[in-house]
Amino acid sequence: MKRSLPSVPQMYRNVRRWTEIVSVLSKYGLADWLSRFNVDFITNLLKSREGGLQSQLTQPARIRLALTELGPTFIKFGQLLSTRADLIGAELAQELSKLQSHAPADSFTLVRQVVEEDLGRPLEEVFESFDEVPIASASIGQVHRATLLTQQLLSEDGQVMDWPEEMLKPALMHEDEPLESFEVVVKVRHAGIERVVNTDLDILTGLAHLAERLEDFRNYQPVATVREISRTMRHELDFIREQRNLTQFRAIFSNDSRIVVPQPIPGLCSSRMLTMQRLEGVGIRELRDAQQPDIDPAELARVGANLYLEMIFKHGFYHADPHPGNLLIVAGGAIGMLDFGMVGRISERLREDIEFMLAAIVKQDVALLTMLIKRVGRCPVDLNESAFANDVADFVGHYSTQSLSHFDMSGALTDFISLVRRYEITLPSEASMLIKVLVTLEGTGQLMNPNFSLM
What we know:
Blueprint: H1 15-27, H2 40-49, H3 59-70, H4 72-81, H5 85-88, H6 90-96, H7 108-119, E1 127-130, E2 136-137, E3 141-149, H8 165-168, E4 181-189, H9 193-212, H10 215-218, H11 222-237, H12 239-252, E5 259-260, E6 273-277, E7 282-283, H13 297-315, E8 317-319, E9 327-329, E10 335-337, E11 343-345, H14 348-363, H15 366-376, H16 385-399, H17 409-422, H18 429-448
Parallel strand pairs: 5-10
Antiparallel strand pairs: 1-3, 2-3, 3-4, 4-6, 7-9, 8-11, 9-10
Helix pairs in contact: 1-2, 1-3, 3-4, 3-6, 4-11, 9-11, 13-18, 14-15, 15-16, 16-17, 17-18
């Protein structure tokens, strides 16, 4: 039975993009639920395209491919959705974590235009050199190597400003000679990406309102989930936020030699461009082949884990994407962190609850863990408390017997997500993101040390 068309204003805007999206969803066999609504252009598309690839691929794989084909907004949406395994399940979350944010690079003409408009002066007055070919291009922007003219470091009276020593050293020819230049990277937002993202988020909101009307999707909280992820994506469009994140992390770890966070360059940042110190080092994946006898990968894994756990449980503010591509081993064996567009924040109350949960597993305290899960999550009114307590006991029984040195943190967190999802308990988004970070962190640690255990 067809449902009457609901009052969804997003349906009437950007019909051409709606058509593209429905066509791709239909191609991958993901649009049958839309056929329940009486919308002519949707019905026609479904008749001609539905289910073309259903027999060859799993549904999570089809969802990942569809999001990839739909472009930068949907790729980023899928990446953020992968942090909500409590809503979408571990299998789909794992599949969406494979999404790569590669995007075609803008021409250097467009890059120059953005930089010069935001700086208010020719590019050559600021940079001694600026590589026309980017070193990376992702959903929101692209990154270029550049060399900054030293005059950008001078105060109004001509004195060198108080920059960190590690920035200035590469620019010194001799200790008694003046600075000439130093190396930076410039992250530039793709031209027109804000309009593209806003259009697609508008359509995603419309799809969420449609899905909310169907019993099949109600437990996924589509409207609330899209609203939350949309807010995060719009924040990532504003590079001033990333500049503030860099500044805050540098302040927190200003006296810690274990970590290097790039220095943003004041006056050379805007909502569309971010100029920051260039870090050079060895990537985590290349570490074992880098012939660095003075670097102990196992010790680095331990140091890196401690840094992250301090961020989370001491400061409540952490780098939220610790995959190997965002970490470098720089001179002196310090860990350099890249890409602070996505950070996590966690309240003191939730920090304590998570600490108590981990302790409850180790101490086999089923009653405490059950109480904490119900306090942290939002439980359905018809929660079967007896069955839930029994499953928590099974969970604790399985993981409490593992030694701390060989504790499978990723497995425990994945099973925990499956447990709460089975009983339709929804975790706060800050807890879901933290769980994803801890799983990623353990995997990164095991690249450096196969025996690494985050616990």
